[in-house]
Amino acid sequence: LPSGGTGALAQWVLLELQGEVEPRQSGDLAGSLLGDLHYTCEGVPVLIVGHHILYGKVVQLEKPFAVLVKQGGASQPSPMEPHGHYTVTALIKTKLLFKTRPKPIITHVPKKV
Amino acid sequence: AAMRSRAEVDATLQTAKLNPAELLPAVHCLSFGPQAGGGECCLLQLEPGLCAELEAGRSLIIRGEKDEHAVLCSKDKTYDMKIADTSNMLLFVPGCKTPEELKADQASCNIIHSQIAGFSKNYWELRRCRPKLKKLRKLLMEDPYEGPDSRKDQASTFSKYTTEDLLNLVQASEEEILHQLQVIDACKIEGYWRILDFDYEMKLLNHVTQLIDSESWPLSKVPLCACLEELGSLEPREMIEHILLSYGRKYVDDGEVFFEMHEDKICRAIAQMLLRNAVKFNLSEFEEVWQQSVPEGMTTRLDQLQGLALVDKNSRPETIFLLKVEDLPEDNQERFNSLFGIREKWTEVDITPYIQDLCAEKQTVSALLTKYARSSMLNGVKVYNSRRPIS
Fold first, then answer.
1. The dihedral of CA B365, B370, B376, B380: what is its sign?
2. Could you give the strand order of the β-sheet that contains B373-378, starting from the edge strand earlier in sequence?
3. How many Cα atoms within 13 Å fall on the side-chain side of residue A82?
């Protein structure tokens, strides 16, 4: 796994969410929006996905990750088969963990009379 | 899909009833990048030290042929690879900033359009393991070097391996491979790593020990130059120096190179030479012949034969036979099966030389015995036998 080569390795961030990621439309995932990521002034990550608000926390990873990209393009039968050439594209030292149950966004709240 | 505007972001905040005043000004609008669903990206969890190695520009290599479990090698360590499943979804986002980074960079743009590069429900986990070095010896034993006069050598060049070849075939880091080559006394001949054929090795050793004897040199001070001069007509100089390096410690005294000969290693080699010739030997006969066969001034001791030969104290008379640890399986369970197949019950003293090399970093022989064997008492002595019935 050669590392990026010249220059420092890019630093990416991991987003950890519960459940599955599915496109809203029946089409491809590529290009579709996930949501808006905000941080409170205290540094708490807030993710708005569809009609949900997720609160999370910033976690410094005890064991960082390397992101490997398989070289050679040609699709192999099992993508997780470790044989082949890989390049380390980036390192991940931080993750945003969203574990709390999403709070639904209520658009119409009937007023109590 | 069109990129979100600030107005759209603010509208969403309002609907969500979030107060912008309580939030940092910058927002990341996350979307899936063009390759996101492709599955070409995967995550590798790094053990301590590996992150620093990557940042220093060093490479990690995944090694293993189709029939082997893949291992990851750094410059000097080897790790087993295993898939770990999480129940969560992991998305990897380039260019995503942490709150600290945003606060530090006050002038940062208000909207950051971030593309998710990929996602996964699992990642590769690493566990430091023993380098798989048995194959190294196996490869070099395909064609042991029998000396310059051997006609066999001139015939073919296949089954000969360069450093590069070994790196590609052996599941271990470069440093571990180079260190093991030294341990097994391999030498480089015409660019290929070779192991000496045992008979040729003994022939070389014999030249040296006979010369030491006839010159009455002290075993701790054998001069290199004189050896090369006297023996250079019999064998290649590189081979003479190689045998001295294999069986002695090189040092310089007053500008001259000498060798302090390893008494234990020489005695051990001679024992191997004697034991190869029969299935087993009468112990006392063997000890007598062995002592007579070693160079003047050397003393033979049975503990020199650890991991090479085994004494059967239960036979009458007591016998000894060749059992080389390097001929036994590399896998822990297979090793123990093999040992219990040879002998049903072992004392810790007897079995230790045959399982010592299985110990992982910080693992003890006792821990191995607890895991792979069952203990019992036999005539007041603690012995170990197999956990499972041996057919």
1. positive
2. B346-347, B381-386, B373-378
3. 24
Residue A18 belongs to domain spanning? 10-23+32-72+80-102
Q: Give residue limits of the domains in chain B.
A: 6-128, 133-195, 198-261, 296-386
Q: B276 by DSSP, 3-state: which? A: coil
Domain count, chain A: 1
Question: A–B: how many Cβ contacts below 8 A?
Answer: 197
If residue B248 lies in a helix (H) or strand (E), which one and from where to where? strand B248-253
Q: Which residues pair with B29 in a beta bridge?
A: A36, B113
Q: Has residue A41 been placed in a domain?
A: yes
> Residue A109 falls within a domain, yes or no?
no
Chain A residues in contact with B32 by the CB 8 A cut-off are: 29-34
Phi/psi of residue B232, nearest 5 degrees? -55, -25
Question: Looking at CA atoms only, how far is residue B252 from chain A in angstroms?
Answer: 41
- Tens of pLDDT, residues B111-124: 889 999 988 889 99
ipTM above 0.95, yes or no: no
If DSSP codes are grouped into helix, strand and coil, which group holds residue A30? coil
- Whole-model pTM: value is 0.81
What is the reported pLDDT for B361?
Answer: 81
Residue A1 lies in a domain: no
Helices (H) and strands (E) in chain B, counts: 15, 18
CA distance B381 to B391: 25
pLDDT in tens, B20-38: 889 988 999 999 888 776 6
